[in-house]
Amino acid sequence: MANVWTRLKKDKWAYIFLLPSFILFGTFFLFPVVWSVFLSLIDYQIWGSEFIGLDNYRMIATDRIFWVSLRNNFFYALGVVPLWLGKALIISALIFPFRKSIQTFFKAVFYMPHITSAVIISMIWLWIYNPPFGLLNYFLSLFGKPAVAWLGNTKTALPAIIAQTVVMGGGSSIVLISASMNGIPVHLYEAAELDGASKLVTWFRITLPLLRPTILYLVVMGTISSFQVFTQIYTMTKGGPQFSTITIVYLIYEKAFRSFRFGPASAMAVVLFAVVFCFAIVQFRWLGGEVEY
Amino acid sequence: MVKRKMPVGKIVSFILLIVMALAAVLPLYWMVCTAFQRPSLTMEFPPEWIPANPTLDNMRRFLGRPYIWTWTLNSAVVAGTVTLLHVFLAALAGYTFAKKEFIGDQFLFWLYVGSMMVPAQVTLIPLYLLMSKLCFLDTYAGLIAPGIAGPFGVFLMKQQISTLPSELLDAAKIDGCSEWALFQRIVLPLAKPGLAVLGIFTFVGQWNAFLWPLIITRSSTMRTLQVGLTLIQEEVPMQFAVLMAGATFAAIPMLTVFLIFQRYFLEGVTVGALKG
Q: Which of A25, A83, A210, A286 holds its CA 20 to 30 A away from the CA of A218?
């Protein structure tokens, strides 16, 4: 016991340095994470809460809108993540042969939408998608296509939001992939060239496999952020029309902060966490494994 | 690089890149363009791609609306405070994890790293209830506290500071440097690039934050600029010129930050993500 005490005393500066950060992290992050699981098991009322076990989960399992939001969110993630990654991979491959300054220029250009807030981007696209006055319908009218109410139609609303996310996104992925591509040893490419491999074959056989850790990271992070989509939905459609764009986080927001049903909303939040966690594990299984050059 | 074979391929890829870059930037250009255009033109086709008679009217009408400057100030105060405190505390904690051994160090660091997998929205409801218990609803404290508490900064700073030579710190300690002076005089200056990256990303993230400010603020005077924009959007959904003026007004500070610190953005993204 005395031993532990002297050890703690010797390390006291470590604890002092860590304390302010940890108090905040514990209070405003760790504690809420634990509390959210607890909240999902009680019937939360201001005047006193009651433990109700899994009732909140039963409630959301029979809630049709919750299933719709899950389905929409899977659809959104399945649309956004591959397209986003594909776009970033293509652009990274295209800028790779160019001079450093040209590479930097393109990276900066593609990064610009990334630092513009989701609210602003959504406001711009609300206008682009506007049926009578928007740019998109104007472009289509040049080809003789009739105007479409992109966000007002249950069939097009979610794809429209996906398209917007893909067109504006990918900036940081490009930077990351380019950095990894620069880390691939040149002699591998020289060997491939000597063997007479075409650029495309080289990319598929050498670049892509060696990028696997980066791609894994981007897929996991992209999936996690896709399941957190909120701002676009709030600004552009409020989940409509007829719940066709409602996503999990948006539904949690409505349940918790519009209807003040904290119990079911917390259960949804726990499910969201579970979904994201499962995705991460599956993706690590599929794409994981060491890469050696 | 000059005059190698396949210049055709290079030209084709350059054109492809330009087209994709235009698609990504066109909406932003369109926003700025409309902000300085006569409002009547927003309802006319074909669009005027370069405003023939640029005007500041839209911007004036946007800035003439109530609370705009209050919201801007709120956004600046919140983003600035979170950035300063978060960077400082994350550096302190990151340094401790990087260069010190103590009981529980691995477990505590694992807690931080593990938390990075948790979507922040999971904490939303408990955090709101906690804030209401603390009487932090609709206050700066409520806006700021969760921003400082996130685990990512600590992880990033640990990665950064781990790369500093331990010999230097040992030498300073032997010379009688106190623990605090060691951190302040040696670690902080050497970790400057990492601090800058974390600071810039934190500032931009906080300026652009939406969901938490939306929930935690209620009165018109406590809203942030992003939340304020959506309020205006809901009030006058068809006044595109004013809306785009507002969007431009809110985007310009970040675009400026980006142009000045571009290098940090483009290099900073890779920090902490790649195996280091």
A: A25
